[in-house]
Amino acid sequence: MKNAGIIAGPISLLVVGVMIIHCMDILVRCAHHFCHRMQKPFVDYGDTVMYGLEASPFLWLRTHSLWARYLVRSLLIITQLGFCSVYFLFLADNFKQVTETVSISNKCQQNKTTVETLPYLHLHLYMLTFLPFVILLVLFHDLLMLAIFSTAGNTAILGSMALIFSYIIQDIPNPKNLPWLYQSVKILHSIGIFFTYALQFYVPAEIIIPLVMSWVPEQNELLVDLSVCAFMVCMTYVFAMLIPQMEQITVLLGSASCSVLALIIPPLLEICTYYSDGLSSFIIIKDLFISILGILGCIMGTYQAFYEIIHQNFFSSSQNVTKDFV
Questions:
Q1: CA separation for the pair 16, 14 (Å, rounded)
Q2: What is the enclosing helix (H) or strand (E) of 301?
Q3: CA dist 140 to 14, 44, 85, 212, 236, Å?
Q4: Are 201 and 163 in contact (CB under 8 A)?
Q5: How far is Cα 1 from Cα 301, in angstroms, rounded to an integer?
Q6: pLDDT tens digits for 117-140?
Q7: Separation of alpha carbons 68 and 76, rounded Å
Q8: How many CA atoms lie within 13 A of 26 on its CB side?
Q9: Handedness of CA 127, 130, 132, 137 (dihedral sign)
Q10: What pLDDT digit, counting tens, does each position of 94-108 carry?
Q11: Residue 114: is its pLDDT beyond 60?
Q12: Fewer C-beta within 10 Å: the chain N or C terminus?
């Protein structure tokens, strides 16, 4: 998408966005269909796919419906926890930039030019600073509280966007002359990402925690619940700290799994769910078309992500070694 250009890029982004919203509507309708059929108040994504394959006219799909449920849940866990890991990097990197910029500003105002002697902290220390606050944040499992947190995060992001657009519509001055006051844009974005971490974390938590709870005594459920939440948050911190180029790994995960979850599975699920009830040829062709586009996007996105990871990790390293040798 980043190589699409200024005309094709926004148009293709709009088209993909419309298709994703349509696929979300398909998924919700299929979930409601199976809630009514199975007399259940709620079915999640994995259960909906499992029931959809069980209703399929193809024997192979019916016999592998349980594996499809495991696949969907695994993709959800990997994708959401990967995004949470990147959130740690985003928070730490932005606050590191802000604190170092303020420190440089203070030194310059005091007519001290020895910027190299500033006691800069490592990025991992900033990440470690956020860890206890993130753990406290994810202990709220109530969707109402998560909605409040998400609203607060979106408000912060909107505030930062308002600051950005306030300068876009004006004559943009030299960036070096902007007050450091406008580092608040980074702070507002970081606040928004911090609060939306809990919403991203909710999906894998709702999959993993009930599974763990089924193996523990009832009197220990609260302690285990809190422990599992803290452990999962610590795992996202460890992934962000240990895995190099975490942003590129997340692009790879997004291309490989988000395409499957958002564009490939829902249209095929609609065909499996309503095929016995009678589907028009238009709906079948439409669903197959969306799934094929999702498959192509998955293949091309995964290839591009692999290419960038390999190029930056191997070819760039070999070029640096060659320059040092010369």
A1: 6
A2: helix 281-310
A3: 34, 20, 19, 18, 18
A4: no
A5: 9
A6: 444 567 788 888 889 999 998 888
A7: 12
A8: 28
A9: negative
A10: 888 777 776 655 555
A11: no
A12: C
